Prior knowledge:
The chain is of the alpha/beta class. The chain has two domains: about 5-155 and about 360-470, 3-Layer(bba) Sandwich (FAD/NAD(P)-binding domain); about 165-225 and about 250-355, FAD/NAD(P)-binding domain (3-Layer(bba) Sandwich), CATH 3.50.50.60. Helix content is about 30%, strand content about 15%. It is globular. Mean pLDDT is about 90; it is low at about 1-10.
Amino acid sequence: MNMTAFAPEESMHSARPDHEVIIVGAGISGIGTAVQLKADGIDDILILERSIDVGGTWRDNRYPGIAVDITSFTYSFSFEQNPNWSRIFAPGSELYQYTRRVASKYGIYPHIRFGVEVQQARFDKHNDLWVLTLKQGKTLRARHLVSAGGGLISPKLPDIEGLDNFEGDIIHTARWPKGIDLKGKRVAVIGTGATAVQLVPEIARQVRQLDVYQRTPIWVLKKPDRTLPGWLKTLFRASPALQQGIRSVTDASSETLMVLSAIYYRQAPWIVRACEKAALQNMYEQLPDRQDLWEKLSPAYGFGCKRPTFSNEYFKTFAQDNVELVTTPIRHITRRGITTNDGKSRPIDVLVLATGYKTFEKGNIPSFELIGSNGTDLGQFWHDNRYQAYEGLTIPGYPNFYIMLGPYALIGTSYFKMVEGNAIHLSRCIRESHRRAATRVEVRQEAHDSYFQDIQKRQQGTVFLNHNCATS
């Protein structure tokens, strides 16, 4: 980002911050930001984490079958490659342990305060400080504030009549309980997104009956997954450059495919058609001679409208005698089952909600009230004016504030790459404020507006605003 887009202002006020930087969240974003700041000589850092350990999404999600949906080679920090992944698509437990190792190796744990939840952050424009109010009743002051909670924080519950009346177990995939036994039970899964694609084949092997309720099918490609042999791991450890080369190739190919299919789909429609053909072929091979299921599982929207996923097991699961795909809309949930619009009721013991997160809803990003220099809550501002942020990171009226993986800062491949880029930028801003003896860093309104207008203009040509995405 061009520093001329910012307006550092010198201040000579008496109030001092408790910490130069406070980071909210100790997941991938929080850890990556702290590592970058420390590498740049900024050590007065405090990380506030409401849970009991680092890891974020990979700490909280433990549903059966959880794994990365892009190759493990790219799903890591560039400065800390992991030569010991067990598979090309590593299971979630390995990602959780990876975040713990990074936090330990780079000395991040001493900077973290666990079991602390932020309720509000308010900018003190007289002292150029952020004043944080914690759920525990205490307050903290920081010169710079980083929101690193990500979007996968608050599980989203479906708006279905009778949900509260169900007398069996209700499980959201984002809060999968330890030790739950589904063996021999009648289970319903609501939702067929990326999580369900991983979950359904795993629990279908355990349950007596599995009903999968689908509103919109998903594009599912073959998963080029396999166990990584010991000799290859040894080679990676001996030659990090080799692993870096594989990382670069897989990242470039994935990013190219994503860009062509989502942004330049009009110029290269054959890419979209090829991907759709490959996904359909994956379904045909897993479900031979099951035209009754082909129609139900084939998306009516174009490839790229929603993020696709990978699986070699998902489709074939619906051929099992104990699995039923239900596409009739749900009318209501009863005390012991689900009734669909055709009047049919299916009894269940356990209800699993694979319904995602409140990603872009007020109160989720950020997960606390954030009052800027203009007295406006950021969540309310976004609710009223659309999500927007300069380079996905900073917003006028919210000085010294940086949001990791904010609006328009997400990519279709590895989040680690965006985290590193965001962290480098915000560290550069903070170091520049030190050089200028400034206490306030804020993006200029005109720079932000120009960027936002450009983003809106560029969106017009993407697949996301294509009429073919209406059913996604």
